[in-house]
Amino acid sequence: QVQLVESGGGLVQAGGSLRLSCAASGSIINFSSMGWYRQAPGKQRGMVAAVDRSGKIIYAESVQGRFTISRDNAKNTMYLQMNGLKPEDTAVYYCRVVEPTTNPSIYWGPGTQVTVSS
């Protein structure tokens, strides 16, 4: 089983920055994919950014050029650097990983709140 804990959320003014972290309970080397998702009130949860084991990265169009995802295998941690934050970025941010050697293979963290004031 995999346990994930997000941190780094908070309240920031528009234009500001935050860095989210997602720490895993064990090695992340075997994770085939790691990603950040977000869910705003009344909206469905959607993908923000994801990185696979080969290093291929994808971003949602709404965050392209402002957010940067990275993973540090040595620290078993994934990050999301968020710059140029906008009020519409306000949401609960979740990390999600795919560990193909376990059943279930998809794990979610409990989430961290990001609030951007105008």
Topology, please?
Layout: E1 4-7, E2 10-13, E3 18-24, E4 33-39, E5 46-52, E6 57-59, E7 67-72, E8 77-82, E9 91-98, E10 106-108, E11 112-117
Parallel strand pairs: 2-11
Antiparallel strand pairs: 1-3, 3-8, 4-5, 4-9, 5-6, 7-8, 9-10, 9-11
Average of the residue pLDDT scores: 95
Q: How many beta-strand segments?
A: 11
Strand content: over 45%
Spell out the helices and strands N to C: EEEEEEEEEEE
What is the SS-derived class? mainly beta
- Main sheet: strands, sense, barrel: 7 strands, mixed
Gyration radius (Cα, Å) is 14 Å
Stretches where pLDDT falls below 50 for ≥5 residues?
none
Distance between the termini: 40 Å
* Helical segment count: 0
Helical proportion, percent range: under 10%
Shape: globular
Keywords:
globular, 4-stranded antiparallel beta sheet, 11 strands, 0% helix, 7-stranded mixed beta sheet, mainly beta, 118 residues
Task: Give an account of the 3D structure.
The protein is mostly beta strands and 118 residues long. 0% of the residues lie in helices and 52% in strands. The chain has no helices and eleven strands. The strands form two sheets. Strands 2, 4, 5, 6, 9, 10 and 11 form a seven-stranded mixed beta sheet that branches. Strands 1-3-8-7 form a four-stranded antiparallel beta sheet, with no helix packed on it. The chain is globular. It starts with a strand and ends with a strand. The model has no long low-confidence stretch (mean pLDDT 95).
